[in-house]
Amino acid sequence: MSVGEPRSEKVAVVDEVREKLSASDTAILTEYRGLDVPAMAELRKALREAGGEYKVYKNTLVRVAVDELGLDLEDLLTGPTAIAFVGERPDGSAGDSVSIAKVLKDFAKANESLVIKGGLLDEKRLTVAEIMALAEIAPREELLAMLAGAIAAPMQQFAALLNALPQNLAYALQALIDEGGAPGAPASVEAPAVDEADAEVADEAPAVDEATDTENDNEEEE
């Protein structure tokens, strides 16, 4: 550890770095040499809004924490070092690696004094090229919106189909009626035939009665 700081403060910084590296799934190391105070404040604000945190540490103290955790960052600890961690947004929602990488990439493009050196993603080493590629991925919110849209589209089509069914059914029924193919039409034509059969049975009934009366009269005469 470097001379000039009380040992307790150095231990506290090492503990903080170790905790942040352990808690954050992403850590991106940068060199900020040449950034003035307003530029540094602007970068910190942009990272905070994206759900990140930007901390400046002495390389000697970061090296102790990195060694304790067994992380592959030793060669990046040269020059003035600041680390961007993934944290929470002001509204309490979780930040994400893509948003942090995008902020750093955009800021470095506008401010040559900010140099991205490398980093970690889930304890795996990230090169500068990989960080730049990470920054090109759509943010989490956009990916979720795209997923929700992909799910909602078929549902909307299905709902439209359901809404169209009654109208299409009405058209189909009307077409049947117009063509004279309504299911109830044959029944109305056959109904009189049933009535005529009943009438024939009714006409035959008196003949049976007359035959019975004749037989009774003959028996009485005998």
Radius of gyration computed on alpha carbons: 45 Å
Q: Give me the strand/helix succession.
A: HEHEHEHEEHHH
Give the CATH architecture of the largest domain. 2-Layer Sandwich
Number of strands: 5
> What does the largest sheet look like?
5 strands, antiparallel
CATH superfamily of the largest domain: Ribosomal protein L10, N-terminal RNA-binding domain
Q: How many helices in DSSP terms?
A: 7
In round numbers, the mean pLDDT is 78
Name the strands of the widest sheet in spatial order: 2-3-1-4-5
Summarize the model shown.
The protein has 222 residues and is of the alpha+beta class. The chain contains seven helices and five strands, in the order αβαβαβαββααα. It folds into two domains: 131 residues, 2-Layer Sandwich (Alpha-Beta Plaits); 77 residues, no CATH class.
